[in-house]
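Design a sequence for this backbone.
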């Protein structure tokens, strides 16, 4: 079986084979067929130095426009291999074709969006952030902020659920900022990340040292980082907390961005009536957000807040649509399958345990789905890591309880809970806030009062708030779509991080320096060149 090498210090390196060097076998999660093996790399201090000393200077020697062109060409290159990448995602990630496209097109989409942004940023070694501001009425001294690339390396530690988008999306932003990348994909789905890395390296588009790939565990990588480096982590809250508290990173105040768990919600406004296009949109979005990538999305909907008087109709509409998906859950390589398996045996065990924990609260029950179901489309019974869509429901009392498990536990699978509420913005905001900070929440309403109230009351708990109304229902995107123009990240439980969001995303890799000087002097350095 193929062993997947890391790409470090300019060469493809097979994993170490010494005592204590762990190997992991990558499996097709639908069939459990082995696909490849990964192991650990060593001498990561050399890789960090290579990024800093070779990749960083090479990137900074390019203009911002040249870096943007590099992103554009890379997007094209990856797009040329789209079909091959989709096949890998289906085999190694349990993705349906639609899931795979979501990940892979998301990756090229971020490259293209940041390539476009590059055209607006000028050709200086810095980005001027604002106008020079006077510091005193009587003085000609001004202060102006500029953004400059950090001189370290961007370490990207990614989650298993988006091996393409996670790796490429993060890298696009760092590269445009002028910072070299050392990327560590999550092991279980790293076959896709590895193939993309091969394409990036073979393309010759990214300067040597500006892209390195670390397969297998992170080892002692973080021990080698310092004050000019950046860590961008996506994954579970537990590992995120470990990384944030890493002694070396704390000692150097190394910049750390954490994207973690999230108990995303939807809020059905009191004015949304059955039969309206908006009601149908709620149902469509909830089903997409529960079942796309088998619910293994950080932005998937976990809590569905519905006014008590609408509970019955929403429940029955969701059950009907989820039944359809459940009937077409199976091997994603088979035609007509709508939902594939979870990514690993561990994810399956965790999802089953998670549902059991949600059900352990009084007043929570299953309204559709069987966590123990073992027969699925085109797979031998008991094979693969399948988990059918599970819809739960809480009583209004349990829904309002800040200590309820539904507000604390992310079950990373096709699992969501109906939470009846009284239809007021105040209660909706309280329930959303019980989740401790989320990536995204969607509010469905045609009422300006309800929507504006929701922006003010829910916004502080969210990285992104999606507003949906009847007029725009036809063109509305499901809330789990993350666009490079919008901030991605959320407060509290969601990790407190911020990625993407146009220029905002670059800030993670740039030092914001206030330049203080005379008005004429600043104009000579930063003003438009003749
Ligand atoms: P995970 O188990 O926390 O792993 C995430 C990454 O951290 C993997 O690359 C993993 O490597 C690595 N890792 C594990 N232990 C480490 C350590 N001690 N030091 C350094 N790195 C370490 O998360 P996951 O299961 O892959 O992903 C699922 C979670 O990610 C979910 O909770 C989901 O909500 C969250 N997520 C959040 C976002 C977001 O943007 N907020 C996006 C996607 C996913 P190995 O795989 O080699 O162990």
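Sequence:
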């Amino acid at each position: 079986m193929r062993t997947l090498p890391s790409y470090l210090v300019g060469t493809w390196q097979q994993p170490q084979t010494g005592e204590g060097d762990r190997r992991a076998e990558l499996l097709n999660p639908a069939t459990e067929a082995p696909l490849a093996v990964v192991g650990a790399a060593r001498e990561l201090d050399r890789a960090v130095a290579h990024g800093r000393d070779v990749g960083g200077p090479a990137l900074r020697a390019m203009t911002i426009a040249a870096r943007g062109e590099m992103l554009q060409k890379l997007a094209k290159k990856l797009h040329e291999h789209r079909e091959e990448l989709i096949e890998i995602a289906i085999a190694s990630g349990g993705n349906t074709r639609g899931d795979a496209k979501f990940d892979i097109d998301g990756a090229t989409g971020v490259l293209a969006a940041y390539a476009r942004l590059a055209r607006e940023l000028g050709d200086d070694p810095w980005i001027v952030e604002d106008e020079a501001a006077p510091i005193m009425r009587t003085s000609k001294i001004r202060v102006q902020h500029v953004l400059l690339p950090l001189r370290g390396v961007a370490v990207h530690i990614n989650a298993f659920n988006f091996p393409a988008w996670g790796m490429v999306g993060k890298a696009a932003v760092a590269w445009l900022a002028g910072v070299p990348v050392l990327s560590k994909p999550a092991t279980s789905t790293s076959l896709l990340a590895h193939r993309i890395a091969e394409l990036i390296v073979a393309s010759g588009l990214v300067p040597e040292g500006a892209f390195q790939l670390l397969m297998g565990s992170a080892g002692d990588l973080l021990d080698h980082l310092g004050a000019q480096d950046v860590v961008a982590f996506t994954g579970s809250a537990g590992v995120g907390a470990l990384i944030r508290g890493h002694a070396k990173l704390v000692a150097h105040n190394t910049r750390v961005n954490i994207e973690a768990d999230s108990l995303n919600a939807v809020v059905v406004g009191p004015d949304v009536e059955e039969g309206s296009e908006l009601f149908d949109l709620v149902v469509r979005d909830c089903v997409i957000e529960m079942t796309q990538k088998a619910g293994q999305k950080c932005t998937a909907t976990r809590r569905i807040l519905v006014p008590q008087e609408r509970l019955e109709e929403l429940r029955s509409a969701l059950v009907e649509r989820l039944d359809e998906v459940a009937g077409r859950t199976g091997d994603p390589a088979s035609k007509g399958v709508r939902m594939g398996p979870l990514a690993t045996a561990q994810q399956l065990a965790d999802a089953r345990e998670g549902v059991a924990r949600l059900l352990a609260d009084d007043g929570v029950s299953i309204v559709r789905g069987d966590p123990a179901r073992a027969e699925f489309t085109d797979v031998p019974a008991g094979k693969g890591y399948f988990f059918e869509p599970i819809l739960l429901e809480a009583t209004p009392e349990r829904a309002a309880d800040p200590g309820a498990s539904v507000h604390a536990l992310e079950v990373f699978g096709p699992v969501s809970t109906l939470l009846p509420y009284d239809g007021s913005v105040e209660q909706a905001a309280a329930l959303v806030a019980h989740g401790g900070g989320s990536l995204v929440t969607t509010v469905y309403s045609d009422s300006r009062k309800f929507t504006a109230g929701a922006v003010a009351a829910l916004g502080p708990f969210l990285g992104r708030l999606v507003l949906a109304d009847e007029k725009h229902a036809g063109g509305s995107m499901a809330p789990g779509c993350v666009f490079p123009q919008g901030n991605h990240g959320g407060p509290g439980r969601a990790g407190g991080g911020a990625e993407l969001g146009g220029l905002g995303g670059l800030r993670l890799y740039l030092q914001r320096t206030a330049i203080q000087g005379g008005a004429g002097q600043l104009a000579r350095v930063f003003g438009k060149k003749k």
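Residues 157-162, 184, 186-188, 217-218, 234-236, 239, 242-243, 259-262, 298, 410, 412, 439, 494-495 surround NAP (CB under 6 Å).
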